[in-house]
From TrEMBL:
Full protein name: ABC transporter permease
A GO BP entry: transmembrane transport
Species classification: Bacteria, Pseudomonadati, Pseudomonadota, Alphaproteobacteria, Hyphomicrobiales
This protein's record includes keyword Hydrolase: no
Membrane topology: Multi-pass membrane protein
CDD domains cross-referenced by the UniProt entry: TM_PBP2
Domain of life of the organism encoding this protein: Bacteria
Transmembrane segments: 12-29, 103-123, 144-164, 184-202, 250-269, 289-310
Coiled coil spans: none
Primary residence: membrane
Family stated for the protein in its record: Belongs to the binding-protein-dependent transport system permease family.
ABC transmembrane type-1 domain span: 97-303
InterPro entries: BPD_transp_1_N, MetI-like, MetI-like_sf
Amino acid sequence: MNYLTQRLATFPLILLGVSVLVFVSIRLIPGDAITAMLGTEAGLLTPDQRASLAAYFGIDQPIYLQYGRWLVGLFSGDLGISVTYGRPVLAVILERFPLTLELALLSMVIALCVGIPAGVLAATRNEGPADLGIRVLAMLGQSTPSFVVGLVIIFVLSVVFGAVPPMGIFTPIYVNPLVNLSQLIFPAITLGFAFAASVTRISRSAMLDVLSDDYVRTARSKGASARSVIWRHAFPNALIPVVTLSGIEFGYLLGGAVIVEQIFALPGIGRLVLDAISQRDYALVEGCVLFIALNFLIVNLLVDLAYAALDPRIRLGGR
């Protein structure tokens, strides 16, 4: 509990630093909301019209006053109004987040279900043909960009099978689970391909280290079966590196897989941030980045707590 309290106490400080960084960074990009909204027609505005619009968007004041006003609203739960959608930023984020969350979970399930068995198999067949084949596939998965995998999937489905995966729409899972799965399975495979390759390499390396420990040799000398030695004695102690990698990757996925969401035209958080930056929607960019940072902090905290559950020798916040 002491460790949990200490970690939770650092959240506001980290989020404050993130808010300052994103608030300044988005305003360093040339242009403003007026130019992004009107395009070339912004040059036709009179000074009075531009001043009125600047006051409406809240960009007529010095940057420190803009930040102070936004920070005061943040403490009251108000992330501002999106100039693109004309709605509260938090409402827009929560509308897009379920897709990103489901896509991240589905990608992680695919990666773990493929990567962990492959890594364990490679470790138990060290330097054998199976190990060599799995290592080659893992290297291929890590070195292939996700946009290439996504384009290959779309090409194969459309040219070979004559079917184009559904894109540009999202049906919540509680509305129609089958349609929802058909919309997200191929983007999830695209994201899970590289993720599974990383899990395979990490789990193989961790298993090789554990299988050479003394307690594993002791279990074998006592007559324990090979399956028991691998899955009961060795595997739980090899999970910590896998959990660490999964937590980091899952945090990134919750931030939105921008390229994959763009390729499959999915209305998720990543695509929302990309559109908000192009439209100079300051409030929406700031709210999205802060929301992503909070998710990342929560995921990392859960990963750290999982360490103690997986390995009793780890004591969080101990003396």
